[in-house]
Amino acid sequence: MRLTELRRTTGFRLALMFLLLFGTCSSLLFAFVYWQTVGYMVREQEGWLRRESTNFSSLSTDDRMLRLREHMRGDPGMRRPFGEFDATGHWLAGNLPSLPVEMQQTDRPVNFHMMYAGARVPFRGYSTHLPDGHWLVVAQNVHEPYEFEELMVRAMFGAGLLTLIFGLAGAVAVGTSSMRRIDAITLAIRRIVTGDLTERLPVQRGGGDLSRLTHEVNGMLDDLERLVHEVKGVCDSIAHDLRTPLTRLLGGLERALRRASTVDEFRLSIADAIDEVGSLLHTFNALLRISEIEAGARRAGFTQVSLSTVLTDVVEFYQPLAEEKRLSLQFVDDAASVAVAGDASLLFDAVSNLVDNAIKFTPPGGTIQVRLDAAHRQLSVVDSGPGIPPGERKAVLNRFHRSEPSRSTPGNGLGLSLVAVIARLHDMTIEISDATPGCRISLSWSGTEG
Amino acid sequence: MSRILVVEDDAQTATEIVDALVDHGFSVDHAADGRQGLLMSMAGGFDAMVLDRMLPGTPDGLGVLATLRATGAQMPVLILSALSALDERVRGLRAGGDDYLTKPFEAVELTARLDALLRRRHVPGQQTSLRAGPLEIDLLTRGVRREGETISLLPREYDLLTFLMRHAGQVVTRTMLFEEVWGYRSEERTNVIDVHISKLRQKIDTDNRPSLIQTVRGSGYILYATD
């Protein structure tokens, strides 16, 4: 048992604190009861002693002697010894054999001891100096009240000791169990820190605050693991997607070095290389743009943007491209004007990405509709193309994701993730669904901005 | 020869800019901080200024611009800014900038924009027609003619041609076209502009006549003014 560590555990400290608190409270309570009880007993005794003393003092000397003798007969066990002594302290009457030293020259109750039946017995007595010069002592055996007091004190100490033992044992148990849990958690964290992101903190049944905490941390770890996987995926994709153009670039340059002889041939190779580098740069710019938009700095430049204007412009912009592919591209709206707080250029980018994809993947002769549904706060791009399989709908929003059939078409796989970050910046939700046949991608926004 | 003042604190960037501008045929002066830039620009004699938005110390880029404009100087100013300051574009233009370019940029984009700024300055405000080689545009009736033959254009094609003709003989980048003709700012999807250009070419280069709009590889387009 690592005692220093145990001492530091919250459970142990809390248990000790409660033990201390409980002990203090009980001691105070006991002290109160003790003082009350003992005080009551003493007051009762003293009252009785004074009353008896007064009774006797008011009698004549002869009557007193008579009464004392009667009393002596009625109290053979020396439970309440009375006695009368002359001024020099000699015994005159009563069952108190001698005048105790403490009882002379005093007018208040005094404790004294006397030998009786071979034992030292405690008494409490009250002496009165009578007018005839005699001393009258009225006393009571206080062995029983003393015993009662002692019993009470002993009971208190016993109970206190038991409480202390059980409390300490409990504290140790609580501390040890919390120490074990913390140890387990620490171990798990250490494994996570060293790279095992699949590890989770142990969660105990039955809840509790520590369980709630570990539950939250585990949730955080889930997110972290997902993000790390995503980042890794993005890195892999970047490496993969950039390798192809870089290889082409390298190949072209090496070929030029080997074969080209005229200035024009070199010029052509350089121009090809510039194109490759340009497309690489474009990919990097797109990546940077996405993270810049993700950072949300452009929110500061938001203005009220008319969505129908943006959508009309996108459709007009892409019309020649659509015509070239013999596609019908239309803008359909429900004639209500909609303004949202946003960045017109980014919204144009988002919608044009969707239209661009639709044009890319819809076979010739198909239709593409850009719809603005002001009543349902939604805009959508619907095409008659092959659509996106349900399993891939979430993945296509990730950076560099390209579905297998699209690998052959030009593009950097960043389009839809750009749409996703622009949508998020505008508090819009993106949804991909079937248009049977075809694909429907909708952006919906909440009511507060319209 | 146009004289350009470049105010840029980063030595390497400044060298790149100065080289590009000198290659393009400008006469270039360089100031390394806002104070020096302001003094040089106030001294006069420059046709345009390339101004870094973020300059160390005071005044910074916007400070230089504001002071310059307060003295009544009309010289066109192109503001350069880091990518992260994209949202400050509006502030830069509001402070009196004429154009705004985010770093990193290609040299051709900078020179093309400077050409456009300088051209804009020399064009008299109340023009009613444009002429470039065989092409003629009546800005009031929006009528387009090539060698007297009327050509009918869609509104956007008309805007596109007008912009190219206003900058006849200069390289115009796709980004500039997208910004000026469509009114959106983005470096994405500019390849779609090629399709618009080819549509425009089909309309103005009838009967197999030589194309007036030339593609400049890797940069953009140029409309030649010669016959």
From TrEMBL, chain A:
GO molecular function annotation: phosphorelay sensor kinase activity
Keywords of the record: Kinase, Membrane, Phosphoprotein, Transferase, Transmembrane, Transmembrane helix, Two-component regulatory system
SUPFAM superfamilies, sorted: ATPase domain of HSP90 chaperone/DNA topoisomerase II/histidine kinase, HAMP domain-like, Homodimeric domain of signal transducing histidine kinase
Domain Histidine kinase intervals: 237-449
Pfam family membership, one: HAMP
Subcellular location: Membrane
Domain HAMP intervals: 176-229
InterPro entries: HAMP_dom, HATPase_C_sf, HATPase_dom, His_kinase_dom, HisK_dim/P_dom, HisK_dim/P_sf, TCS_sensor_his_kinase
Top EC class of this enzyme: transferase
EC number: 2.7.13.3
Name by which UniProt lists this protein: histidine kinase
Organism field: Luteibacter rhizovicinus
TrEMBL record, chain B:
Keyword DNA-binding found: yes
Residue numbers of 4-aspartylphosphate PTMs: 52
Any single Pfam family the record assigns to this protein: Response_reg
UniProt GO BP: regulation of DNA-templated transcription
Molecular function GO labels: phosphorelay response regulator activity; transcription cis-regulatory region binding
Residue span, OmpR/PhoB-type domain: 127-225
DNA-binding region: 127-225
Protein name: DNA-binding response OmpR family regulator
Organism of derivation: Luteibacter rhizovicinus
